Amino acid sequence: MINTLRKPSLRLDWINGAMVNAAKLGGATLIMYMGMPVIASPKFLEKIKSNALNFENYKPLEKKRWNFETCGRFIIDELVL
């Protein structure tokens, strides 16, 4: 779906904003696991499910590590998983 949103639009802005909020709450780990169903096989998803979907594993990004620019692009200066 993301590939169909190549031009700036309300839908793309919405996704960008939601991703920033998710990163603020659950850090890079949550962002990574949100995209996992699109890139991983069902067998792999089943293997990581108990750990990946454990809320305790999500840690917010430190404020100094994220910046939401006015253009709506999310930048992580020092991404550490």
Can you summarize this structure?
The chain has 81 residues and is mainly α.
Report how far the terminal alpha carbons are from each other.
25 Å
> Main β-sheet: number of strands, strand sense, barrel status?
2 strands, antiparallel
Q: What's the pLDDT, averaged over the residues?
A: 76
Portion in helices: 40-55%
Structure write-up:
The chain is mostly helical and 81 residues long. It has one domain (9-76). Helix content is 51%, strand content 7%. It has helices at 10-39, 42-52; strands at residues 66-68, 74-76. The chain has a two-stranded antiparallel sheet. A hairpin with a 5-residue loop joins strand 1 (66-68) and strand 2. The longest helix is centred in the N-terminal third of the chain and has 30 residues, at 10-39. The model is unreliable at 70-81 (pLDDT under 50).
Give the SSE layout.
Blueprint: H1 10-39, H2 42-52, E1 66-68, E2 74-76
Antiparallel strand pairs: 1-2
Core attributes:
single chain, two-stranded antiparallel ribbon, 7% strand, 81 residues
